[in-house]
């Protein structure tokens, strides 16, 4: 099973990456830009594998660039927060 097929595994995977980036000293702005680029790539190239990813893809598709950056930042906060528990 791909990490993309299970929402909890996907959040955990992203959370681990956020923690590693923070521990590695990546600045918040850089992390935000990388998250935006990943979100944009996924939205354009990867078919959502579960309902949560479908909602994110649908939101991304109707959002303007500023809103897409907000979604990316929210995913950083969501995954960083959920991996700490």
Automatic annotation (TrEMBL):
- Which Pfam family, any one, appears in the UniProt record? DUF3243
Matching entries from InterPro entries are given as:
DUF3243, Uncharacterised_YmfJ, YmfJ/YflH_sf
The protein here is known as DUF3243 domain-containing protein
Protein source organism: Jeotgalibacillus proteolyticus
